[in-house]
């Protein structure tokens, strides 16, 4: 079983807080998107940006930012394989709030899905791997520029471009996998960059200044690009489809891709026992 260190515990608590805020933000933003569409007559799903003038949408955005900041700090303490699956809580929060606030009914199958997501997250937490200490941003850069991870990044970029320029215009408004796919793919890259940036800032606060290295600023730019892209297409998905559909699909795709990216970049599973490896690689995806 993977050791649950002090840093892992800090990351665990921050990830739980993050999921609570992010789950609530989905509902607040959805409410804001509905109000903006009612006033302007143009929905975000078809290219409207009237929601930028809606205070309720901005409240949801601020709530999401608070959650993402907590998530950002969590990645500095714990491995992505531990932090990311805990996003299951955001599904529970959004599903419950959607039923009471948005009047989007949660069916029995949805409840079962929520329970299964929580079960998968518990398995990941139990088998969370210890992350080896990182001493500099250059060390993360070496991981990010290894051939296997570069192939992953290249594949993600190609698929995202195909989804944006080919599938989104044709079936983005009818197939939930298009917008959520773009968010999830870009999300897996943003998590790796956030992990790198968070670790760099953590080392800087500990007295080992990483801001003097261009790699730190490169990761910051990547985070900005990925997050902006995610937010744009997540708004489209939330405005077009039921929240109870978007949240779990986005969560499962995002989590699966992030774990894959983390395994490739950080090789977090290489030091696990057979039992822990089975828990992380086999049981958790089956439950998801």
From TrEMBL:
Gene Ontology terms, MF aspect: magnesium ion transmembrane transporter activity
Ranges annotated as spanning the membrane: 12-28, 49-66, 72-97, 109-129, 149-169, 176-197, 217-234, 246-266
SUPFAM superfamilies: Multidrug resistance efflux transporter EmrE (SSF103481)
Superkingdom, taxonomy of origin: Eukaryota
Main location: membrane
Record's keyword terms, sorted: Cell membrane, Endosome, Ion transport, Magnesium, Membrane, Transmembrane, Transmembrane helix, Transport
GO CC terms in record: early endosome; plasma membrane
Membrane topology: Multi-pass membrane protein
Position of the signal peptide: none
Transit peptide listed as a keyword: no
Subunit and interaction comment: Homodimer.
Free-text function comment from the UniProt entry: Acts as a Mg(2+) transporter. Can also transport other divalent cations such as Fe(2+), Sr(2+), Ba(2+), Mn(2+) and Co(2+) but to a much less extent than Mg(2+).
Family indicated by similarity: Belongs to the NIPA (TC 2.A.7) family.
Name of the protein described by the UniProt record: Probable magnesium transporter
Organism: Vitis rotundifolia
């Amino acid at each position: 079983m993977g050791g649950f260190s002090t840093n892992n515990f800090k990351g665990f608590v921050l990830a739980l807080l993050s999921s609570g805020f992010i789950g609530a933000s989905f509902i607040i933003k959805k409410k804001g998107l509905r109000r903006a569409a009612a006033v302007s007559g143009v929905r975000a799903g078809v290219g409207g940006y009237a929601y930028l003038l809606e205070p309720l949408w901005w409240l949801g955005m601020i709530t999401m930012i608070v959650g993402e900041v907590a998530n950002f700090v969590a990645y500095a303490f714990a491995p992505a394989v531990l932090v990311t699956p805990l996003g299951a809580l955001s599904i529970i929060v959004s599903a419950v709030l959607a039923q009471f606030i948005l009047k989007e009914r949660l069916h029995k199958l949805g409840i079962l899905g929520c329970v299964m997501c929580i079960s998968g997250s518990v398995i990941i937490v139990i088998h969370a791997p210890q992350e080896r200490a990182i001493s500099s941003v250059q060390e993360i850069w070496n991981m990010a520029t290894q051939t296997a991870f570069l192939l992953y990044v290249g594949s993600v970029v190609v698929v995202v471009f195909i989804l944006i320029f080919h599938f989104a215009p044709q079936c983005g408004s009818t197939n939930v996998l298009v917008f959520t796919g773009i968010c999830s793919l870009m999300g897996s890259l943003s998590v790796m960059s956030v992990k790198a940036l968070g670790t760099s800032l953590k080392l800087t606060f500990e007295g080992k200044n990483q801001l003097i290295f261009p790699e730190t600023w490169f990761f910051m730019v990547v985070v900005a690009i990925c997050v902006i892209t995610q937010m744009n297409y997540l708004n489209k998905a939330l405005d077009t489809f039921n929240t109870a559909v978007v949240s779990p699909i986005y969560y499962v795709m995002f989590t699966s891709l992030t774990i894959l990216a983390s395994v490739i970049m950080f090789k977090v599973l290489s030091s696990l026992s057979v039992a822990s490896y089975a828990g992380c690689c086999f049981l958790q995806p089956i439950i998801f």
